[in-house]
Amino acid sequence: MMNPPRLPKMFTRSSLAKESKVNFLEKDIEALTLSLECEKREAAFLEEQIKLMQFELSSLPKPQQNNLNTLKASLLVQEKKLDQEKNTLNQLHYHNKQLRDKIDVYRMEKLSSKQSLNIIKNTIDKTSRIANTQTSKLLKIYESESLQKQKIGMIRSKSVSQSSKYEEKLTTLANFLKNTASKSKILYEESIYQTQGVEAITILKSMVRLFGELTHKKKKSLEAYIKHINNLINGFEEMKKATGFYKVEDIVTACIKSEEQGQAILQYFNMLSIDIDKLDEELKKNTERIFLIEGNKNQGDLNVQGCLDGVIQEYENVMNKVQIKKQEVGFYGGNIQKSLSSMLKMYRLLLTVGFKSNFHTSDGVERIDKLNEENLEVLLGSIEELVEFLIMATHSKMKKVEYLHKLSQGDKSKSQSSQRLRINELIEENDIYEEPELEEIRVPISLEEMRHRAKNIFEKRRNLIKGKLGTAETYYASTSNTALRNDL
């Protein structure tokens, strides 16, 4: 007999058991048919023997009475044997009929199992097609992500090239300023040379009057500037007492960190919204699949329950992910709420000192300590403007205090030539606060880590200042007289 065809693993046991029963019954039928044929042959042989014996009896002369009795007895015995053989033959026929009925029943079951197997194969083909579509979509998503990464790299390279261009422009502007200063000096010397033989008392008087007015204006501006610096110093002292940071660098780093955390959390909210949209789409697709599977179940699909269990499990996993994302959003919202209270205290202290801020908020500063989903973007924008203002104020305070310190200790006998602004050094000092480690942070950090990084930034800046002690004096050593000459 031929071997049965291979079937899927899910249905091999039941189908093989049915086929083994059918094969066993077919073997029994074949054995019974062989035995029936043997019985038929024996019956035919016995009938022929009886006919021969009857013919011999008819041909023989009439025997005696005893012989006839013996022959009759033998005939009766043979007839009884013949009847027994007929009974066994009838029993075998009946048994054969029963076996054929069972074979028909097993054949019907086999046909029904084949139909169910075809249905299952169709469902497997459908699921494989759906899986192929999902894989193609995932590949498209990966390709889009790679394209976005390439675009980001191009933008970064473009920013580097633009920075180099701007540095070249700055050098050209510095050279231009130097040339203009030398030209103005030459013109001044020519004007002095032309007025040597002329009575210049009136000109000198007018120049003295102009210089007096300029000195008076400069004196007023210096007094206002000193008041501004005193206000800054008092404000920072109060901020130190209120916040617990005893260094200006710590306050600046705290402001920078709060700004970066705000940006990182805003990006994280955007990513969460995108993930939630994707999960909603997956839920819709899963619900559609559930409806299709329920329709197939009404049509006779046997494995719908397993598919339903899988889809329900996927649905539960998706809902668990959504709950986890919501918990994370609540956690980061609490962290923002804690940092906003301290920022609000700092801003109020600055207002008491007498600052005039250049930023504005449409909803008011008092709403900063109340965070919800509606005013999230507006509040983050106002916080960003506040942090930028604090950074600018601290930076200007540090530079101008150092300038006044050098101005008071300067020597009047030094050269009167104006020193141009060292833009490259300022850029190097500002680059200390723009390290890639700070830009790569996308989650809130602890207070200890913030203090450690602020300490590292302060150490780097102090080392930079120590390395530039020779050039710093030439940068800040301009006296009041040289400043007035430069303004003229």
UniProtKB/TrEMBL annotation:
Residues 22-102 form a coiled coil. It comes from the Eukaryota. Residues 77-324 form the ODAD1 central coiled coil region domain. Transmembrane segments: none annotated. The keyword Transcription does not apply. Keywords: Coiled coil. InterPro entries: ODA-DC/CCD, ODAD1_CC. The keyword DNA damage does not apply. This is ODAD1 central coiled coil region domain-containing protein.
